[in-house]
Design a protein that fits this description.
The structure holds 2 protein chains of 2 kinds. Chain A is of the alpha+beta class. Chain B is α+β, with helices and mostly antiparallel strands. The chains are: A alpha+beta, B alpha+beta.
Chain lengths: 513, 793
């Protein structure tokens, strides 16, 4: 049974098709008098944000709020959390400050994307206020800095809204709304009820030994039942995998659920990994950063950004905030897409994986994990337990470039990651990886060889640029032609080099914010 | 007579007089929020798919062709029925009436009849208890094809003269001679991409059979009357049996002008067969595969000009990729031709428009309706001339502006009136500090190795009116109820553009009552009949006037009644701020309405409007197709990455003409939204079909409309103030739906400007639209190669 708060009402859900998305649950499954049609379906693929809802969960006795795409979320992800939809913001006839600001700034035209924007803005406001409070408390000794903290940071607002498409307004009024609600720090009903909500949510958290299960009788196999399991411990997961060797593992679901909504696949057995704390932790040691496979991408951001600033920047352009709040680092790797954003970046950083299978553990470098297009070394019943990223060597050059048609919320045509170490002006180590250039995320070995032991100068770079042709024979598709991919890959190496030369002018269009 | 209230006593008369003298707070010209804003933000606004479902509701799903051109050798629907929950399957032979749902010209079968002409064309539709079941069942049908040759490329269609309609020409003088005599002459070609509407709400209709054998249709459409006509036609019913109800669309942009008809008609056919309510909502990918888009164009030009860059002659061919059927392509290619001058006097001109037939979905109306493509073509010519003469493109543009008293006749022989292109451009040039920034950019580009900046200021002159003259008509219906509340209905449709708000403001202004008193309900074919589509930016112009006419009729009746009742002259009856003054007396609007009711005055009226002055003689390619022109100008600055082709818009300044604004907040919203949509069309929005004719950019994962961070970092939008429309439009406002779309051209030109900087502005880079990062980088490469060739001996 899945238990969650739908705003303030406890819902206990069982006997439901495990393939049901939260969006369909709200719009279709709920009884007709309770249906919530405010949440819209614009694409059912997590690309437009019209279905955005907010999940509140308890962390350190406080509620944290996250926007998610309800079209890509299955019900297990709601367990123990509060689901807030656009209908919950208004109190009686009184619009929520976020809603009122949208009215005042003419932020809606056709109105279809509006509920999604309202929910992203609501979540942004909650997090913004939280951050302000946090930053203010840490900055108490530096009162002179207080004013800068209070200032509206447009980049953060744009990041929160990058996953919401509007075809009418041109976004300007919505940016103004973000600005206004950043100023507004009055408490709303969610703040006032926070303690009560926290208590209720705590009371419905699964116990350590629980495995949540819900199911419905299948409609296409005789007597077979479709099940969804949410183990809370690794040992339970391993038992389940033995019992259901064909089960599909569900982490963030931002890719797997597309099979349901776009390919009409109906899974018989799903095992949701989000309740297993051991898989969702980040450990920072002297030499490594270890990230549990199901850690959502948004939670990886801080630690990776501190260590590898370019990786932090890449994560900000990784899909949308809604996707990053659900999608996991392990999922992005296990999915083995040639255009996943994390693999090239992590390969260049020298990351390795810890894989687990029936209690046995093995490790392998990330670059060796991929065999062919969407094929990996994972055997049946095996899964990624964690990603191990070496700490960045002092003084190393680490640069990532993601090329896509649209800057935000787009998939790479080419993603190039460069990790170079120099000694006395010569290259001592070079780890260069590309996405979008081959069937798998792949290192550019010829290019690396061309650079090794050479002086870090334009002549070496030009030789190494030519070597890239030996590394890759990219394909043409709707994202880019083979010609563009080859040319851009070469240019990225050049750009990487230019960026290490003294120059005060900006070198990336994303430097303009 | 207990309801017959007496006129207030003297003390309150003084208060009323005071109130009378205060202005109305919510009338015309005020920044009133969208009438549905509070419902939009709370999720209370209902779209067709949100309506409470009927208990025995069927869901309909269409199986689309997997071939671009083929005869259908087999359709076996038996496997569909093996899936539990399936109610019925329809194919072309199940249509009781007319199979063809072509809007103006035939050519669009509701379901493919023996032959498919594009990949994505509906072949059959399955009705089932849920959308999931209907989808599974539709996939189970067995369809076999015998492939035919498919033409996918517009150039190929042009070369083999495959047209959906005859070509048309605009002619002035002898272009050929002028070209031969010209001091300078340039030729070029350009591909302009299409555009997916990407309305956030996909096509959707919900149909309920009525007891009299008719249909009640809730449909997300810009054209309720046409849906009514087509539903009646496919069912072989008279139009009076079909009612269309349209409260709001989740975006239209032209995509729901003709192409909402398919789902509505299919659902009606199934409702007719089963007697059950039927809903059809297209999943996003199906919507993108099955419905038409903005026309891609192939342009060829040959242009002659003097030393100063002034045009002497031009021969331009505009070949629109219409897809497989005419749809509205005739008028769309016409409008491209009408706008191939944009703001410029072309001199001796020969403009030819071709309507090319290809095996793609039938391309259709989209904001600007061909106009943007014609304007991109001529703006490209301006840039080309500028580079050739090594002058600032703005100088060339200004040099070619239409004159006020001479050089003021278009190539279709309409005089350009109320032309203030020059003043507007010079205002914007100053407020945007064009020349200072041009200098700063040159300096930046000299020192910046990877990034280069570009700037462009481009004008817009857009003709307002349907070019199919008969469409320029509208109706409205107003009821005043005995409590003084007003019900307003008009033939236009609300798709987010704020039409209902504007029309309500107009009626509020006429009656001098608060806006809250006016309720607009769903557009409904049994309230206002025989309406034109809400298109061509005409919504407020036409329906506002019709509503004004209805209001004036009622006001006149109330005025006559008041004059009689209070025994004063008609000229002594005045309406202001919810009050009526009759001689010395003041009474509230409510009271007057009550008095009038008891005096048996009719409190309901229709209103009608048709646009004056317009005509077009197609045989002579000459006339006055536009009632007036709307003007605008935009200045955009971009930065590009010469190693990757990436770019960002740094700043955009816009000055736009809406005449006397009916609602400045809504108008600004149209200008900003139009600009961003136009920018998207010319930058990141790329439609790609594979060799089989399948659209591969068929979802928002692959087709990229602008997101929030694509907006200019610094965005300054202004409406031109204190400049009424000299024509007698509703409160002297101007149409605003489409014209701002073309302000986006400034971004495309600025990108080309940045690329051209690599050649010290000598070379005009060939960058087709949309200028994706790939096209920009390839433009950079081509330009570098050209420079290298020039330098080598």
């Amino acid at each position: 049974m899945i238990r969650f708060l739908l705003n303030n009402t406890l819902q206990s859900v069982s006997n439901i098709d495990p393939n049901t998305t939260v969006l369909n649950y709200l719009r279709n499954t709920l009884r007709s008098t309770e249906k919530r049609t405010g949440t819209k379906e614009g694409c059912a693929s997590g690309d437009c944000g019209a279905c955005t809802v907010v999940l509140a969960e308890v962390k350190n006795d406080q509620l944290t709020y996250q926007s998610i795409n309800s079209c890509l979320t299955l019900l297990p992800a709601l367990n123990g959390k509060q689901l807030i939809t656009v209908e919950d913001l208004k109190q009686g006839d009184q619009l929520h400050p976020v809603q009122q600001a949208m009215v005042d700034h003419h932020g809606s035209q056709c109105g279809f994307c509006t509920p999604g924007f309202v929910m992203s803005l609501f979540s942004y406001q909650k997090n913004y206020n939280h951050r302000l409070l946090h930053e203010n408390s840490t900055l108490k000794s530096h009162t002179d800095k207080k004013n800068t903290v209070q200032q509206f940071n447009p980049a953060k607002a744009l990041e929160a809204l990058a996953g919401n498409l509007c075809r009418c307004t041109g976004y300007q009024p919505i940016i103004n709304v973000a600005k206004e609600i950043s100023k507004n720090q009055q408490l709303d009903q969610f703040d006032l009820q926070q303690q009560h909500t926290v208590t209720t949510l705590k009371s419905i958290q699964p116990g350590q030994c629980d495995t949540i299960k819900y199911s419905i009788p299948s409609t296409n196999k005789k007597g077979a039942v479709k099940n969804s399991y949410s183990p809370t411990q690794l040992s339970q997961l391993e038992r389940l995998l033995q019992q259901h060797p064909k089960a599909h593992l569900l982490a963030g679901g931002t890719d797997l659920v597309l099979d349901i909504t776009q390919k009409q696949i109906s899974f018989d057995t799903l095992i949701y990994l989000g309740e297993i704390e051991e898989l969702r932790c980040i450990n920072l040691s002297e030499n490594t950063i270890e990230i549990g496979a199901t850690t959502p991408l948004s939670q990886c951001h801080a630690v990776l950004c501190d260590e590898y600033p370019d990786l932090g920047q890449l994560l900000e352009r990784f899909a949308s905030l809604q996707i990053r709040n659900q999608g996991t680092l392990g999922g992005n790797i296990a999915n083995a897409s040639p255009i996943g954003d994390a693999p090239p970046a992590l390969i260049a950083a020298g990351a390795s994986l810890q894989l687990r299978h029936a209690g046995a553990v093995r490790s392998m470098p990330l670059e060796a994990f991929f065999i062919d297009y969407r094929k990996t070394h994972l055997v049946a019943g095996e899964y990624i337990e964690k990603i191990i990223i070496p700490r960045k060597p002092a003084g190393s050059i680490y640069q990532i470039y993601k090329l896509s048609k649209r800057l935000d919320d787009d998939i790479s045509a080419v993603c190039g990651a460069f990790h170079i170490q120099l000694k006395d002006g010569k290259v001592t180590e070079a780890s260069i990886a590309f996405g979008g250039m081959a069937a798998i995320p792949k290192r550019a070995s010829y290019c690396e060889q061309a650079l090794l032991h050479q002086p870090w100068n334009k002549a070496s770079i030009e030789t190494a640029m030519s070597a890239l042709d030996q590394d890759f024979t990219p394909l043409s598709d709707f994202r880019a032609s083979a010609k563009y991919r080859s040319l851009a890959a070469r240019n990225l190496l050049l750009k990487c080099w230019i960026e290490t030369q003294p120059n005060s002018l900006p070198t990336r269009v994303t430097d303009y914010v | 007579m207990s309801n017959h209230r007496k006129v207030a006593n003297n003390t309150s008369q003084l208060e009323l007089e005071k109130q009378f003298k205060q202005g109305l707070k919510t009338g015309v010209g005020k920044k009133i929020p969208h009438e549905s804003a509070a419902r939009h933000v709370s999720g209370d606004a209902l779209y067709v798919d949100d309506r409470l479902e009927y208990p025995n509701q069927l869901h309909l799903y269409a199986r689309l062709s997997k071939q671009a051109h083929a005869t259908i050798s087999t359709i076996d629907t038996a496997p569909c029925y093996k899936i539990p929950g399936v109610s019925c399957v329809i194919t072309a032979k199940d249509i009781p009436g007319n199979l063809d749902i072509g809007a103006v010209f035939p050519g669009d079968p509701l379901l493919a009849d023996g032959v498919v002409e594009y990949l994505g064309q509906p072949i059959l539709a399955v009705a089932a208890a849920s959308l999931d079941i209907a989808r599974k069942a539709a996939d189970a049908a067995v369809i076999e094809y015998t492939p035919l040759t498919a033409v996918l490329d517009v150039k190929q269609a042009l070369d083999s003269k495959q047209f959906v309609q005859d070509s048309h020409q605009h002619k002035r003088g002898d272009a050929n001679k002028a070209l031969n005599d010209a001091t300078h002459r340039l030729q070029g070609e350009l591909h302009i991409g299409g555009q997916e509407h990407f309305y956030l709400e996909t096509q959707v209709s919900s149909v309920m059979p009525t007891e009299d054998g008719g249909m009640l249709v809730h449909c997300s459409t810009q054209n309720p009357t046409e849906i009514q006509k087509l539903v009646a036609s496919v069912l072989d019913l008279p139009m009076n049996k079909v009612i269309i109800d349209m409260r709001r669309m989740g975006g239209g942009f032209g995509g729901k002008e003709t192409q909402a008809a398919g789902p509505a008609c299919m659902a009606a056919v199934v409702a007719n067969i089963t007697g059950q309510p039927v809903k059809m909502r297209l999943p996003r990918i199906d919507d993108m595969l099955a419905t038409g888009k903005r026309h891609p164009f192939y342009i060829k030009y040959d242009v002659g000009f003097d030393e100063t860059g002034r045009l002497q002659g031009i021969d331009m061919q505009l070949a629109g990729n219409c897809g497989y059927s005419p749809d509205l392509s005739g008028s769309i290619i016409d409008r491209a031709m009408f706008h191939s001058d944009n703001a410029y006097y072309l001199g001796n001109a020969l403009i030819t428009g071709h309507r090319c037939k290809t095996n793609l979905a039938s391309n259709t109306a989209f904001r600007g309706f061909g106009g943007p493509q014609g304007m991109v073509a001529i703006e490209n010519v301006m840039d080309h001339i500028a580079r050739y003469l090594r002058k600032d493109p703005l100088k060339i543009r200004k040099r070619n502006f239409y004159g006020k008293t001479e050089r003021n006749i278009t190539h279709y022989h309409q005089t350009v009136e109320d032309n203030f292109l020059e003043e507007m451009t010079s205002d914007l040039e100053q407020s945007a500090s064009y020349s200072e920034r041009r200098k700063a950019i040159i300096l930046f580009n000299q020192s910046s190795q990877i990034l280069k900046k570009g700037i462009a200021l481009t004008p817009v002159k857009f003709g307002i009116s349907f070019t199919a003259t008969f469409l320029n008509q509208a109706g409205a219906l107003i009821h005043i109820y005995t409590d003084g509340s007003i019900h307003l209905n008009h033939g236009g449709t609300e798709m987010g553009q704020g039409l209902n708000t504007k029309v309500a403001q107009i009626v509020a202004e006429e009656f001098q009552v608060d806006l809250e008193r006016i309720q607009i309900s769903a557009t409904n074919t049994d309230k206002v009949p025989n309406t034109s589509p809400t298109a061509a930016s005409s919504g407020a112009d036409l329906n506002g006037k019709a509503a004004q006419a209805a209001a004036r009729t009622l006001k006149q009746r109330l005025t006559s009644f008041a004059a009689e009742h209070f025994d004063v002259d008609i000229s002594e009856v005045k309406f202001n701020n919810n009050l009526i003054q009759a001689g010395e007396q003041f009474i509230s609007f409510n009271e007057l309405v009550q008095l009038a009711y008891f005096a048996q005055v009719s409190l309901s009226s229709t209103g009608f409007y048709k646009t004056p002055k317009i005509f077009y003689d197609r045989d002579k390619a000459s006339g006055h197709p536009f009632y007036y022109f709307a003007y605008g100008a935009a200045c955009s600055e971009v930065v590009i990455d010469t190693l990757t082709g990436e770019y960002k818009v740094l700043r955009t300044d816009i000055l736009h003409d809406v005449g006397a604004s009916l609602n400045p907040a809504i108008d600004i919203g149209q200008v900003e939204g139009g600009f961003i949509q136009g920018m998207g069309w010319l930058t990141t929005e790329e439609l790609i079909w594979n060799e089989q004719g399948k659209l591969t950019t068929n979802s928002p994962a692959s087709y990229k409309i602008p997101a929030i961070a694509d907006t200019p970092l610094d965005f300054r939008v202004k409406l031109i103030e204190n400049r009424k429309n000299p024509e007698d439009t509703v409160f002297h406002s101007k149409a605003v739906g489409e014209p701002p779309f073309m302000l986006g051209i400034s971004v495309w030109s600025a990108i080309k400007d940045a690329v051209s900087s690599l050649s010290n502005y000598r070379i005009h880079p060939q960058i087709d639209a949309p200028a994706t990062p790939e096209k920009v980088l390839m433009g950079v490469e081509a330009l570098r190669k050209q420079m290298a060739t020039e330098q080598s001996p």
